[in-house]
Design goal:
Number of domains: 1
Number of strands: 0
Radius of gyration: 21 Å
Largest sheet: none
Number of helices: 17
Helix content: over 70%
Mean pLDDT: 83
Distance between the termini: 22 Å
Oligomer: single chain
Order of helices and strands: HHHHHHHHHHHHHHHHH
Low-confidence stretches: none
């Protein structure tokens, strides 16, 4: 048992946390640039180099893996799976299928439109829409590399619960009439599911890596830059007074700040890591991440073209309330995960 623990610890430190990369970045900053990493400038450069390279390595590997899995679940197959399932079970399956789809909410909305036009229950499609940007294998492994397995697992569980409950509530409210008319009028043609060869799946996965990296690289650099500034330049006292554990409104502030931003898990994690390092409660950090990924302003603008204001308001209200509740619960019981 001790041997297994040692092996797991080594894999976690070297493959996920990439301690070797941190040491390599330290030597570069201190030995080549001549800047101690325990000082502001050196620490900022070290943070930026280490996190940027680590995220892009993990990004490329994880997108390839997820895309390979996703190649077995094209929208047509996913729609057929969901079309045969009703009730809460359908919400659960919808949330789980959301974990193997694209990495940001904007990418998920076209699939959401396709599901809705195909006549799938509204609650199930919203469970899918909520979970898709929040929870996937990539986010789980990335969170493990930054915060450890307990927090990563807890994040995935609460994300899925939020997706299931949110979709179930929307389904019970019978809000189908608040979907824009053109969506239900879209002609839905059953297209044949194409079986890909292994080589085609590999080529598809490589293409997805290139496509998604092109979309997110700027947000990753911005996120790492903000994280480096928070980590090394903003005094801990300011952060603590604003969103620290002593501020009862910290979760509300983090959620409100996160919604106008546009990023995915890759661009958000460096900021979350820096905030956590400054002593911000894990619930506040997770609320910020969830608000950015699930309720970003660009995705809400896209969704407003698909659903009417009342349904959009219900969606935002349910998800925001869920995120806030999750934040306060994690802040109260965060000691169990750290």
């Amino acid at each position: 048992m001790k041997f297994i623990s040692i092996i797991f610890g080594w894999l976690n430190d070297q493959l996920l946390k990439m301690n070797w990369l941190s040491e390599l970045a330290r030597k570069l900053v201190e030995d080549v640039f001549g800047l101690p990493i325990n000082e502001r400038l050196g620490g900022s450069i070290h943070f930026f180099l280490y996190d940027t390279v680590k995220i892009f390595i993990l990004l490329s590997v994880l997108i390839f893996m997820i895309s390979y899995i996703q190649s077995y679940f094209p929208p047509e197959r996913t729609r057929k799976i969901l079309g045969n399932i009703k009730g809460v079970k359908g919400n659960i399956i919808g949330a789980l299928l959301g974990t193997i789809t694209p990495f940001c909410s904007c990418s998920s909305i076209p699939i959401f439109i396709g599901f809705t036009s195909a006549g799938l229950p509204l609650g199930i499609t919203f469970s899918f829409l909520i979970s898709s940007p929040l929870v996937d294998l990539a986010s789980f492994l990335l969170l493990m590399s930054f915060f450890g397995v307990k927090i990563a697992a807890a994040y995935v569980v609460v994300g899925l619960i939020l997706a299931v409950i949110g979709g179930t509530i929307i389904g019970k409210l019978k809000l189908e009439k608040y979907v824009e008319g053109y969506v239900t009028e879209i002609e839905n043609v059953d297209s044949e599911i194409i079986i890909l060869t292994r080589e085609e799946r590999i080529a598809y996965s490589k293409d997805q890596v290139m496509e998604i990296v092109k979309k997110v690289w700027l947000y990753v650099l911005i996120g790492v830059g903000i994280g480096a500034a928070i980590h090394n330049w903003i005094p801990e006292s300011i952060i603590q007074n604003t969103i620290g554990t002593d501020n009862p409104f910290s979760v509300l502030i983090a959620t409100a700040v996160g919604i106008p931003m546009y990023a995915d898990i890759f661009g958000t994690l460096p900021i979350a890591e820096a905030l956590f390092g400054k002593g911000v409660g894990i619930g506040t950090v997770l609320s910020f991440m969830m608000a950015v990924t699930a309720l970003s302003l660009p995705s809400l603008i896209m969704l407003s073209k698909v659903v009417k204001p009342k349904l959009l308001a219900v969606f935002v209200g349910i998800v925001a309330t869920g995120i806030i509740i999750i934040g306060y619960l994690f802040n109260a019981f965060g000691f169990m995960f750290t």
